User: Fold these one by one.
Assistant:
Number 1:
Amino acid sequence: MKLFIDTANLTEIREAASWGILDGCTTNPSLIAREGRDFAEAIWEICEIVQGPVSAEVVAQDAEGMLREAALLKQIHEHVVIKIPMCHEGLKATRALADEGTPVNVTLIFSVNQALLAAKAGAAYVSPFVGRIDDTGNDGMGVLADIINVFDHYYFDTEVLAASIRHTAHMLDAQRLGSHVATLPFKVLKQMVHHPLTDKGNAAFLADWATVPGDGLESTVSAFLQRPRG
Ligand code: G3P
């Protein structure tokens, strides 16, 4: 599974990238607005850190405007993926970009039918918003599962990108379903690292280690390596 971080916050992106697990990043106008900085500069910096696909969203509402914005966004960095909202005009723009070889992430997907249309328009990724579907009292993971099944059924190359992930249980379900990609907030990424038994186990190992004779691991091993053996 590819792991993308769903933020435009450089501190969070740098930290996640330093763990060696980050494959990409997704942004949207709300995440960009939260950072209060120059949009193009932020996207360029994210691309430099992530060294993988970075979704940057168009804001035009007509296909021609979307294509003009996409042409500019692509020039910011080679890692930019054009994020386009699901709608008639978005499908037109997606088809035109796909035909010229530009990867598109079709966003704001809330149904299997929308995902099918985006895939047929040539999207590289479709982004079902599982958390927001749950918010409406419906089954976000059920929609994700159906999209994955339908794409398998028809051999679409389009990758399913689970978005609007809110907690670690969402992540577990997305993995079980075989979602190609998940994009998640930094908070959920951090939660995935931790387990109370890991912390407890590590504390017990350290307490036991304190009773081992010697001046610590590095000096004990260095001293051993300098002595003749046997
Ligand atoms: O990737 C989409 C995501 O940013 C939406 O998440 O939590 O605002 O529904 P949320």
Number 2:
Amino acid sequence: MKDKISLLSGSVVETGTKTFTSINPADTSDTVATFAHASRDQVKVACERARKAFASWKKVPAPVRAGIIQNWGRLIESNKEALSQLVSREMGKPLREARGDVQEAIDTCNFFVSEGRRLYGMTVPSEMANKECYTYRRPIGVFGCISAGNFPVAVPSWYFVPALLCGNTCVWKPSEDSPLTSYYLTQLLYKAGLPDGVFSVVFGSGAKGPGEYLIDGVNDGWIDKFGFTGSTEVGRHIGEVCGKNLQTPCLELGGKNPMVVMDDADLELATTGALWSGFGTAGQRCTSLGNLILHTQIREKFLGMLMKKLAAMVIGDPANPTITYGPMISEKFMNDHLRNLDKLVSKTHKLLTTQNGRITEKNPWANWVGESPDDGYFCFPTIVDNVTPDDEIYRTETFGPMFNVMTCKNLDEAIRLANGTGYGLSSAIYTNTPASVYQWKEDINAGMTSINNSTTGAEAHLPFGGNGKSGNGSRQSGVWVLDQFTRWQSVNWDMSGKLQLAQMDTGYVSADLEYRIP
Ligand code: UN1
């Protein structure tokens, strides 16, 4: 049944001939599933079904829609282990993290269930008698979404839970790296009681495939709202297409996330935080550490401690609970990483790590766990020192297990370096001086910042998103995301039985402005 599926749309399931396989990146002999690239016609069918379903879905009372979200959350929870195992098998993140990925979706459902009983508008006084004013949140229509493979459960839930709750219908193009996870996540949504046509999945590639057709669908009038998590380059293109059509997409793009360690920091904490920020998920989070900015006073001591912890780090089999990270998501991500090492690291830089690139049986990582590293796409952790603001590597997102080291003399310089990359997604500072924290919070140009914590690990009910090249100012999660999936409508209801003119037929009383206190 799951073979060669290209369109999944409730009762309508279609297959395709141009197939692609999902492969376990920790063991490439393990083919997880074969799906097919959806055709342009199939994307159109999905959008048409969504358009048709919108008329009735928006009329379903919000608490009833929220009931389906609640069911979805419960179903995800009761399938948490199987789904987590599948996430880990399909895209390679450690099982512990895969469980977190799934938990984030459960949290998101839980958060939004009661929002179905709010979705508050306001009653607003009128400036005229016998007239009432109100505001309502109205759904937007058909929501088209392209998501990435690094968070195949959490990030889609950030989009679809609020989108559906608010009364929109959806067409989803999930990552080619996690089709089976997307398939089951969608099956659980159907089992939760979602009416036919409200939610469809089109499988396959982005470029020259369903992703591209879905973006074109904005021009074709198929889509009313777009959501995208992925590269800045593709995000910019989506922004252009949506802008031309007077739409504002939700764009969650790249990052070059800085972490500053000041001279008063707890170095034990900061070294652990830096390693996790840089190498958790093999650096394949948009919130992963990009530039580590060390105060000159603690630089040498910090690096000594860091390299010691790095040497003890365990890499390998995603199911092994002791690992920090497993394989790259796919061969493409590994090759991109290898190309970055080749292209971006220059003679002026100093590699603090002696082994870089691909981990193999011939060139193994000392603390390797699992079968042969040759079975999968495993890479060494890389730390690049002596990076300056003039270097391309300083401002280029690398999305792999590598980060840069830079040095600063004071907080002003640290903030300049942190803000200079053009990105502004996540960030972190380690310091114990309240005044430094205060200045940092005010001056760091990032959508998210951590004090004495990792650059990664945003919680499900806080606004998530970035500035600059990291997005277009949209935010996901928490109550703030409601503004992405609804439009405000103001209503004024006149019961006076006559045409009352705003600003003119008011009962404003004039003051005696000549009066002066004696
Ligand atoms: C992403 O990398 O696209 O904050 C999302 C974090 C996770 C989500 C990352 N909760 O690291």
